[in-house]
Amino acid sequence: MIDVQVDTEKCDGCEECVNLCPSEVFQLANGKSDPYQASDCANCLTCVESCPQEAITVTEM
Ligand code: SF4
Ligand code: SF4
To answer: Using a 6 Å CB cutoff, which residues line ligand 1?
Structure first.
C-alpha cells in the first residue's frame, strides 16, 4: 500500500502534481492539493520530484 501526503503549509496550489500525476491521484481543494485517490498511486515519484515546494511525500507502507 502507498501513502501520499501533501503538506498544506508548503503547498501553494500550483497544480503541477494535479497535471503530472499519471494516476490522477490529486485534485485541488480550497487552493491546496488533495491526494484524494492515493490508493491509485503507482509510486512513480513524478510528483515528489516535480513539486516546486517539496510538499509531497510518497511512502510505501
Ligand atoms: S505541485 Fe506541490 S505546490 Fe504544486 S499543487 Fe502540488 S503539492 Fe502543491
Ligand atoms: S508517485 Fe506518481 S502515481 Fe503516485 S501520486 Fe505521485 S505522480 Fe501520482
So the answer is: 6, 11-17, 33, 51-53, 55-56
Look at the pTM and tell me if it is higher than 0.85.
Answer: yes
Q: What integer pLDDT is reported at residue 3 of this predicted model?
A: 97
User: Ligand 2 centre and the CA of 10: distance in Å?
Assistant: 18
Domains of the chain: 2-60 (3.30.70.20)
The pairs formed by 49-54 with CB atoms below 8 angstroms and a separation of 24 or more are 50/16, 50/17, 50/20, 51/11, 51/16, 51/17, 52/12, 52/14, 52/16, 53/7, 53/10, 53/11, 53/12, 53/14, 54/10
Confidence band for 61, pLDDT divided at 50, 70 and 90 = confident
